[in-house]
Structure formats: C-alpha cells, structure tokens
Design goal:
The complex is a heterodimer. Chain A is mainly alpha-helical. Helix content of chain A is 69%, strand content 12%. In chain B, 32% of the residues are buried. The chains are: A mainly alpha, B alpha+beta.
C-alpha cells in the first residue's frame, strides 16, 4: 500500500485551537507557554495541553533557557509531513487523470457506436 | 482527530453514468486504482486491493449511482473498518450539462467521521483542499520566520 500519513501527526494538527498554537510557534520561533497564552483566546492550561500533543507528534520541541521553557518548531518533521501530504495529493491527481482518460475514451466509443447503430 | 486529508477534483468530458462505471466496475477500477482489485459494488461488501506486492482489505460504504460512491481502507488486517481505524475515500459526481461531470474525491482520516455534520462542514470549509494546503501554509510561515531570523530580526 502507498505510504500513508502519520496518524499522531494528523490528530495533532486537526484541532483548530492546536493549529493556532502551532502557527504561533512556527511564525515566532522560541516561545514560552505564557507568551502563547497571552495570544490565544483560551487558558494557559489549555495551551499547555496543546503543547504536549504537538510535542508528542514531533512537531515542536522544548528547551530550557534559565527558568523558562521555550518551544520551537521541528522543521524537518513539518517538512516530512508536508511532503507526505503532497505525495498523497499527487497520487490522487494521477488516479483522477486516469479516470478522466478512461471515461472520456469510453464516452467517445459509446458515441461512435450509437452513431453506427443509429 | 485526523480529519480531511485530501480533496481533489477533475472535470471530465463524459456523462456521470460513464464516469460512474469507470470508478466502480472492477476491470476499470484496476486500471486507475490498484494492480489487482476484487470488489463487489454493494454497501457493506468486503473486497481487496493489491499494489505490487502489498495489498489490503477494502469495504464499500455508500453506493448511490451515479452520484456518490465511498469505501474504507487502510484498516488493520483482520479488523472491521470503522470510523477510527481506517481511511474513508469518497467520490462525488456532479453533472455539469449532458456530457460533462465534475468528479471530486476526498480522503478522510479517522475521527472526523464521528463529528457532528455541522462541525464537519465548518471544518471542511476551513480546510478547502485539505492538509496539503495547510502544511504548505505552515511551511511558508516557517520560511518567512527563518528569513526574518537570519536577517537579524
């Protein structure tokens, strides 16, 4: 079977609030949970939960700086996910192209036949 | 929640009935989908698709000619596919005149199917094009952020 996308990854980014958190981490680099909490319409506690899920999916990682924990995006993982998706999309495009060719050929043949019969 | 992963479409210069046969008749399906296809097009029918030396079970869900056809796949061998362990592939055929059909395919991951319809719709609207586009957008954000960083923000 063709390579499939990774479930943990998709579930991590399927949640709209989590996507909001991920977007912020991606565009701002090293950020803390409290910085994030100041920029989203949900609680600090919810932010922490989202960070755990994103980290488990490998999309972000943490490091300690002094007393602060800072989060950053794992670019390779994001890239990998992006390529897997592009491949999946390309696969369907190829299938749809083949369907189009098959159906159009069948249709042309049907028309030719009905002209002969008629 | 895995959600909508892929949404692609194509416009075909043939009536919906012809497109329907192309996506459902086994000898046609084997030309666009897999190397070998064993499939009866009936709701609930269990079949099998093979790609080279790999393959897996397929279970037909919706058969509504010539408008809608869906099946589940990618569930663990020996298990019944349900919303939670499989991928749902759905084809929708929309006639655009007598000899033209718009064919749309979506491939949906697990839990999205368990969502209420309104939520699914909102989500689909938000995600036109699926994950490929979302990830593209993220990659662009990331590239911009990196550029700003290296420019000594």
């Amino acid at each position: 079977m063709p390579a499939r996308a990774d479930d943990e990854l998709w579930s991590a980014i399927a949640d709209p609030s989590r996507r909001q958190v991920l977007d912020l981490v991606v565009s701002n680099g090293d950020v803390s949970a409290s910085w994030l909490a100041g920029r989203v319409p949900f609680t600090r506690q919810a932010v922490s939960k989202h960070l755990v899920v994103l980290e488990r999916a490998g999309l972000i990682s943490r490091r300690k700086q002094g007393r602060e924990v800072l989060y950053q995006v794992e670019a390779d993982r994001l890239d990998q996910a992006s390529q897997a998706m592009a491949e999946l999309a390309a696969q369907w495009d190829r299938r749809l192209d083949t369907i189009k060719r098959l159906a159009e050929t069948a249709h042309a043949e049907n028309k030719k036949r009905s002209r002969h019969d008629g | 929640m895995a959600g909508l992963m892929i949404e692609r479409e194509v416009v075909i210069e043939a009536p919906a009935e012809v497109v329907w046969r192309t996506i459902t008749e086994p000898d046609q399906v084997s030309q666009w989908f897999a190397d070998r296809v064993e499939l009866v097009i009936e709701p609930g029918a269990h079949g099998y698709v093979e790609f080279g030396d790999q393959g897996g079970p397929v279970v037909v869900e919706i058969v509504d000619p010539p408008a809608r056809f869906s099946f589940r796949w990618n569930h663990p061998r020996g298990e019944e596919p349900v919303a939670g362990n499989s991928m749902l592939v759905e084809f929708r055929l929309t006639p655009e005149g007598d000899e033209r059909t718009r064919l749309r395919v979506t491939e949906t991951g697990h839990e999205l199917t368990a969502w209420p319809d309104a939520e699914k719709q909102r989500y689909a609207d938000e995600h036109q094009g699926g994950w490929a586009e979302y990830l593209d957008r993220l990659a662009t954000l990331l590239a911009n952020a990196n550029r700003d960083a290296s420019a000594g923000r």
